[in-house]
Amino acid sequence: MSEKLIKILKEKGPIKKIGVIGMGYVGIPAAALFADAPCFDHVLGFQRASSSSGYKIDMLNKGESPLKGEEPGLEDLLQKVVKAGKFTCTSDFSRISELDAVTLAIQTPFEDPKSLLPDFTALIEGIRNVGKHLRKGMLVVLESTITPGTTVGMAREILEEESGLVAGEDFALAHAPERVMVGRLLQNIREHDRIVGGIDDVCTQRAVELYTPVLTKGKVIPMTATAAEVTKTAENTFRDLQIAAANQLALYCEAMGINVYDVRAGIASLKGEGITRAILYPGAGVGGHCLTKDTYHLERGVTLGVEPLDYPENAESIYVLARRVNDFMPKHMFNLTVKALERIGKTPKGIKIAMLGWAFLNDSDDARNPPSEPYRDMALEAGCEINVHDPHVVHYPGIDIHANIDEVLTGADVVVILTGHKQYFGLTPEQIKQKMGSKQPVIIDGRNVVDPDKFINAGFVYKGIGRGDKNSHSLK
Ligand code: SAJ
After folding, report:
1. pLDDT tens digit string along 58-96?
2. 366 and 294 in one domain?
3. Which of 65, 318, 364, 461 is most buried, by the most CB atoms less than 10 A from its CB?
4. Domain final residue, candidates 253, 288, 319
5. Which atom of ligand 1 is nearest to the CA of 180?
6. How many domains does the chain have?
């Protein structure tokens, strides 16, 4: 426990002026909520005046949200705090020196989708900027999802190097991972419990003081900085693992000729004291920005660990294996497509495929790392002609995405459902068959959207993930 920092914080008094670096999906709602808390005097939102995102500065200073899509309550809140003079957006990072606390909400994307190596460039630049203007008694909080060990390691080193100050003695340092989801940013920050981890107890307590006022239903859960980093990466790793377990069960059920949804309902029926069976849903794959990368952050964190890992010899991490199972599902969708075509004496070459769904998430326009992309790559590689429909995704680099489903279905030999958008649940075999115009249409269902019997009885060759009971149906 650093007596020096306790004394400095006591002299400084409660947190009044806050800075948020990174005016994105995480930073903007966080800054608005800090500004709306009566106990804080002012919030500065820091945004680089870059050609790609400098426009946000003027918008935010007018109380307008630069975020795409519906974010309930956010624009009203921004208007309120700007009118009250409690929030200002600036590109002048030297103003960090005026603050009592600063949070960094900067993206940690992949270097490239295939490498799965996090690109910390922007985060490091942000940490350096803070270090350059760091003053005694300030609290620095990293909100980005980061490899366990980053706060006490790389972040601490950069801050101390740039400022000449000592973390835990001259300033407080903590990690408080974001848990927001697009479409419910304010609600998530207010209502989710907030993991807060300092590099020591004094730092943790100072970070608790920062976050407590913005929570309504949620409560603060204090722990160490590294435990907070492991919590965030592990909560997504475990979700990915649970999805992989459902996907593997689906593949097993296909091989054993049974319906995975019967098994899922059967397992879920085991209820009672202390019994939990989290059976998630099998599907065409796992996309997005969280689950596709956080496992690798956790795995990398172990390599930075303080003790050598004790684990079964030559055994692969089940978490990495889960990633491989989930990333196999688009391949499985393509294998089902090839098997369905074989049943009617066809090969993929020259086949016209209607892909329904590009987004990685049902009823969303979020197309980050979509499982539909590897499926499309494999089908093109095999000589198929592809048309893509999505009711929500408008643009995706290098791909024409059609909003008109009839256009995409017309003349198709195969229809493949990659995303479980609501619109697809209403499709009838007659409607699709008429548009496709094929005598022996094929349907591959990756999200348990259609009733197999309806399509089989209408003359479709059907294959569905986990539907071992239907995938070898007799041809009509
Ligand atoms: N998926 C399945 N089967 C399932 C659930 C999801 O195949 O049973 C697929 C989805 O189709 C999608 C991918 O997994 O392609 C990810 O889905 P997701 O619901 O996990 O959505 P994300 O990636 O936006 O995850 C976020 C995470 N939240 C944060 O990082 C703050 C995750 O921790 C949340 O659990 C998740 O939202 C959520 O519950 O909505």
Report:
1. 999 999 999 877 899 999 999 999 999 999 999 999 999
2. no
3. 461
4. 319
5. 31
6. 3
